[in-house]
Amino acid sequence: MTIGDTATHWGPVSRVLHAIGAALILILVVHGFWMTGFVPRGTHFPHYAWHASLGYALIALMFAWLFWRLGSPGPRLPEARAWERAAMSAGHWLLFAMVFVTAFSGWALAGTARKPLDSVFGLLRLPPIVNPDRSLHPTLGSWHSIAAWTLAGLVALHMLMVAWHWMVRKDGVMQRMFRSAPQ
Q1: Which residues of 1-71 form beta strands (DSSP E)?
Q2: Looking at residues 50-59, what average pLDDT do you find?
Q3: pLDDT by residue (tens digit) across 90-135?
Q4: How far apart are the C-alpha atoms of 4 and 20, rounded to whole Å?
Q5: Minimal CA–CA distance to 106: which of 144, 150, 145, 137?
Q6: CA distance 84 to 90
Q7: Domain locations in the chain as residue ranges
Q8: Which residues make Cβ contacts (< 8 Å) with residue 103, sequence separation at least 6?
Q9: Which of 10, 12, 101, 140 could form a disulfide with 109 if both were Cys (CB 3.0 to 4.6 A apart)?
């Protein structure tokens, strides 16, 4: 059994990275919405610290995934018109880019918090990536929120397109992620 991708299927490493990345993104988006909208003021710091830690973990995972993806380009795109194939490829890379934009804007925002949000679950401290100037906090908060909502929209579009390939096109695109390549 190969751990790499084949011309027809995603390999186990890609599938695991996809599953963990998808779970982290889902948790972070839902938790971010919840903690900014429903957690009472004065009790939110532990939620922000946990959210930041999970975001830092996502950044590490995304770099691992990016390097894996660059070395293992994945299955061939399905038969389609040239513009559809270009849209499929661009969509995947746009998802990658938005995850990084969202995560790094969160890291920048964390550097402007009243208390440092610089710990990865208390195990590792990270330096701020922007000047820890409190006056930047509202702007960075807006950028992070816009990036997160954009990412959520792209994830929803990704899921819609997977369903379209599965139920309308019936071209096996979804099955490539969930089934191993035939031996």
Answers
A1: none
A2: 97
A3: 999 999 999 999 999 999 999 999 888 999 999 999 999 998 889 9
A4: 17
A5: 144
A6: 10
A7: 12-178
A8: 55, 58, 59, 62
A9: 140
